[in-house]
Design a protein that fits this description.
CATH topology: Deoxyribonuclease I, Chain A
Helix content: 10-25%
Number of domains: 1
Number of helices: 5
Distance between the termini: 15 Å
CATH superfamily: Endonuclease/exonuclease/phosphatase
Structural class: alpha+beta
CATH class: Alpha Beta
Largest sheet: 6 strands, mixed
């Protein structure tokens, strides 16, 4: 199985690029974030013409997540158990959930497309929401793996955290000043790893970013961040046979500010001689 995650930054604006990438790279499962549309607005036809089934979750022109798969999408779940909501009103007893998580079982793999809250600034209520959201995700992960220790579980997507200094090449992202690199955020990321997950890409791709701001020539200067991940349970991580960060997808016409991150999985010794290796 070839699995990729990509914050597409508006699927309607970038559907041609997205489908072309999936077809060209022989992607079996594409997990998308920031689709920025409601399900009824999603461009299903282009994906279906390329042989993909699609499930999408969006509430408005912000956020939104989706899964496209060549294999059947089973056990669909919108939002993970315990996922908190957010309201601008701090006294709201029932803050609404945002469209930030969609999960499904595909070919035996339990895969989630996640768009972690940005946090905005260290003194913004959205930052506290981000940390609460990550803690709920950690609790879900720990509970799931305790009950199913051999489950191939993948948490993929835009985590809006650069977990180490090596993952931050943007001079405007500064510890103690901006989000994405604060100690609590990095501790929340580490807590996910401690709950039983592994970063399945970095051991195979030791350098490289996944996001570059559109402003101030960040991409030509390679002043980026690595904030998009494929985190996997032991059963998933053990099956990873190759990985790549598709940096060139940041080039060309109307690119997303993120690039796809992809892994090849060898599940039960499967083999596909017709598909090119990714490394």
């Amino acid at each position: 199985m070839r699995l990729a995650t990509w914050n597409v930054n508006s699927i309607r604006a970038r559907v041609v690029r997205t489908v072309d990438f999936a077809v060209r790279e022989h992607v079996d499962v594409l997990l998308m974030q920031e689709i920025k549309c409601k399900p009824e607005q999603f461009p299903y036809a282009e994906f279906e013409a390329a042989g993909y089934h699609v499930e999408a979750h969006g509430l408005n022109q912000w956020n939104g997540v989706a899964i496209a798969s060549r294999e059947p999408i089973e056990d669909l779940e919108i939002g993970f158990p315990g996922m908190p909501g957010f309201s601008k009103n701090p006294d709201d007893p029932h803050p609404p959930q945002e469209a930030r998580a969609i999960g499904a079982t595909i070919g035996g793999v339990r895969a989630w497309s996640l768009y972690v809250p940005n946090g905005r600034s260290l003194d913004d209520p959205h930052y506290a929401y981000k940390l609460a959201w990550l803690e709920a995700l950690r609790e879900y992960t720990a509970t799931t793996l305790a009950a199913q220790p051999h489950l191939p579980l993948a948490l993929t997507g835009d985590f809006n955290i650069a977990p180490t200094d090596d993952d931050n090449g943007d001079p405007t992202v500064i510890e103690g000043v901006t989000t994405h690199v604060s100690p609590p955020e990095r501790a929340a990321f580490q807590a996910l790893l401690d709950a039983g997950l592994a970063d399945t890409v970095r051991p195979l791709v030791p350098t490289g970013y996944t996001y570059w701001d559109y402003k101030q020539l960040r991409f030509p200067r390679n002043e980026g961040l690595r904030i998009d991940f494929i985190l996997g349970s032991p059963a998933f991580a053990d099956a990873v046979a190759g990985a790549v960060i598709h940096r060139n997808e940041r080039k060309g016409e109307i690119p997303s500010d993120h690039v796809p991150v992809m892994v090849d999985l060898d599940l039960d010794g499967e083999d596909d001689d017709e598909r090119p290796m990714i490394f």
